[in-house]
Amino acid sequence: MTDQVLILGGKGRIGNSVAQDLLAHTQAKITITGRQGKLDLGLPQQLQPPVQFIPLDLADQEGLRNAIASHNLVIHCAGPFLYRDATVLNTCIEQGVNYLDVSDNRAFTRKALAFREQAVAAGVTAIVNSGIFPGISNSMVRHDVEQLDVAERIHLSYVVAGSGGAGVTVMRTTFLGLQEPFEAWIDNQWQTVKPYSLRETIQFPAPYGKAGVYWFDMPEALTLVDSFPVNTVITKFGSVPDFYNHLTWIAAHIFPSSWLKNPAGIEFLSHVSHIMTDVSDRISGVGVAIRSEVTGYKDGKSARAGSTLVHQNTAVAAGVGTGSIAELMLTGQLNKPGVWPVEQALSTPLFEQTIQSRGLEINTVEG
User: Fold this and answer.
1) Spatial distance between the Cα atoms of 63 and 35, rounded to a whole number of angstroms
2) Distance between CA atoms of 265 and 272, rounded to whole angstroms?
3) d(CA 317, CA 335)
4) Most exposed of 36, 61, 88, 339 (fewest Cβ within 10 Å)?
């Protein structure tokens, strides 16, 4: 029987990338949703694969329920997830359909994880926060933690060139992440941190080299604390070219907070930034780099384990991170009823297997 995959928000850059990955690595029949319009995977018409499109607004609960019922895996790509509740996940659990999402918001993650017991009872495997960061980044941390006998401190850094190939979506996510201070696990206690504060210069692989990163609220800052008994989890993000960092810092620390809490203000800032990156992307590219560093002890001595990843297109890398997990779920290699962040659901051997099959290379940072 052919697997039936439903990609909610599949017309967006990330959803499109997920669909492309599934077409390349599975035999699944794919249905993509969007509020309106026609299917467009960005390919010449003669190369368009047999992918179905159905118009669907997530507020249409009956339409959503009917769409989910006819599939055996739902991939939720319809962000921004700050504005989403767990309706899609709950409907999947009620219908007995496995679930995967590309969520990148702490509040949404908490809502989703609260359905763990219901998912276990229904035999539904649900995985949240897949993609590149969060997603592949979580698995990199798990790999590094496993290299040590005792892990004490996790430091995750990300740098994205321009728009990251994700269009205006990444701009919205960035500005939404500046709205409120957030809690970070530092020295065995939750401490309040201001977004886009405490700049650090991190050495990333070529072509990025040394780049500035700042505190940024990511779901990993929450889930990694639950996943691993560490003292500190640091998540920092930055942009290339560096002047975007300074503009974002100004938005976070100088602009009136009402601008960032007004949806119209977010849209204005996002679209202005998108216009700017349309120009700078031609020079900077749209790639991403991740650096994971875990410190602790090995054989009774202080030790460090680290890894890096570079990809030339952030949106494509997110599609790979989600598509690889979807492939494992469709083939039955990943079957864990409940609701889980990536690092709790995906073993390191399976992660390495699927990433390597897609030509991505995780490089080890010597301790």
Assistant:
1) 12
2) 11
3) 23
4) 36
47 pLDDT band, cuts 50/70/90, is: very low
Cβ within 8 Å of residue 358, ≥6 positions away: 21, 25, 320, 323, 324
DSSP state at residue 129: S
Written as six digits, the tokens of 118 are 């219901």
Do the strands 189-193 and 182-186 form a parallel or antiparallel pair, or are they unpaired? antiparallel
Q: Express the helix, strand and coil content of the chain in percent, nearest 5 each.
A: 40, 25, 30
Per-residue tokens: 358: 């897609």
% of the chain beyond a pLDDT of 70: 93
Residue 45: band (very low, low, confident or very high) from pLDDT cuts 50, 70, 90: very low
The CB density around residue 110, as the number of other CB atoms within 10 Å, is: 13
Tokens of 129: 């926060």
- The answer to whether the beta carbons of residues 132 and 314 sit under 8 Å apart is yes
Structure-block tokens of residue 239: 């942009």
User: How far, in Å, CA of 17 to CA of 166, rounded?
Assistant: 10
pLDDT tens digits, residue range 254-312? 887 777 777 777 777 777 777 777 767 788 889 999 999 999 999 999 999 999 999 99
44-48: long-range pairs with CB below 8 Å, 24+: none
Identity at 160, one-letter amino acid code: V
Residue 115 · residue 88 · CB < 8 Å: no
C-alpha–C-alpha distance, residues 130 and 81, integer Å: 13
d(C-alpha 138, C-alpha 345), whole Å = 10
3-class state of residue 284 by DSSP: helix
CB-based contact 294:154 (threshold 8 Å): yes
pLDDT digit string, tens, across residues 177-212: 788 899 999 999 999 999 999 999 999 999 999 999
- In the chain the first and final C-alpha atoms are separated, in Å, by 48
Counted residue by residue, the chain has a size of: 367
Contact partners, residue 44, CB within 8 Å, separation at least 6: none
Rounded Cα distance, 339 and 223, in Å: 12
Q: Is 314 helix (H, G, I), strand (E, B) or coil?
A: helix
The DSSP-derived string for 242-280 is THHHHHHHHHHHTS-HHHHHSHHHHHHHHHHHHHHHHHH
